[in-house]
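Quick one before lunch.
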Amino acid sequence: MKPQQTSERPHMKNVLGFQVPTDVYYLHQGHAWAALEETGLVRVGLDDFSQKIIGPADGLKLPGIGKTYYQDHICLSLFKEGRKASFEAPLDGVIEAVNPKVRQQPNLVHDDPYGEGWLCLVKPINLESNLDNLSSGEANATWINEEAHRLLNFTEGKAGVTLPDGGAVVDNLLGLYPDIGWRPLIREFFLKHLTTKVLAEGSTKDLWKDIYSNGNLQYCFNCSTCVSGCPASHGDPPLLVRNLARKVILGLEEELIEDNTPWACVSCSRCEEMCPMNVMPFEMILSIRQWQCRNDETLIPPAIVEIYKRGYTQAVGVNMELRESLGLSQLPTITNNQEQLEMFREMLMQTQIVSENDYMFKG
Ligand code: SF4
Ligand code: SF4
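Model of the iron/sulfur cluster complex:
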């Protein structure tokens, strides 16, 4: 395929309420777009279809400059009211720059998805073959028309969304009809690669080899001893080590990648001492975290927000109760010392992950 190339705004077509570029922009099946620049770089953004579904975002996690991403792999995320929508890279390449404006004004991605709301510039490394997997020209309009009807079928009966002839899908669909369900819609339309892989392969039974190759994991017999001694099992949501072990053994990849509970572990190692099968559950928790980061470059561990706000993730309430029963005074905590907490926050703000995503830590 001969790449189209221009710095002009594309010609747009209205397809059932969605703005669709019918030249210049290539569309990826996960609803990202790619446009070739005269410099040889490729500009990347998200299409109007995705933005009409999500509505204006509160924040976003852009790909890291200098990092290499591959087509179909998660490379960026939008955040809205504490929920996350991840998107796949439309091509292989190295991130050369990100749009500084959208960091300050994430709503630009929604308001002007093909213009001011662009996200990053990529130096392609496999352009010709990547473009073969993207749609372009009039095929963009045909595909979005199919997606619009698929969306109609998907939401029918849940939100009462109708699409009569000549009508249009409403803007901010998930905001107006939250009962459609954020996760199912995101998975169905934006995470094509992950969904297709799971559908094609069924549950990935050998996931444990990928995550945690301690053979003893197979001998876990669900006894729950690890849960009974775990201080984070009283958290919200509770960390249930036994359940995580089940997910790994059964290959429930999709559930595991969205599970935040491994980040609630306080590294006390009690489960390691108690497990009768020498599964070494704490090591498994660390391995799950690493696997999640490998598979989702945009992951911001939820525990970081808690640490920023409170100075810790899990209160070990059992110890407090024990001290009280013994008539001992409570030990001071960082939460009770505002001055230290502020110093701690300043220190965290100097780390890359917090400073680049400061919108998550305000308020
Ligand atoms: S190491 Fe983590 S998972 Fe294990 S008991 Fe302690 S908090 Fe729970
Ligand atoms: S204590 Fe060990 S064997 Fe029992 S459920 Fe936990 S990981 Fe499995």
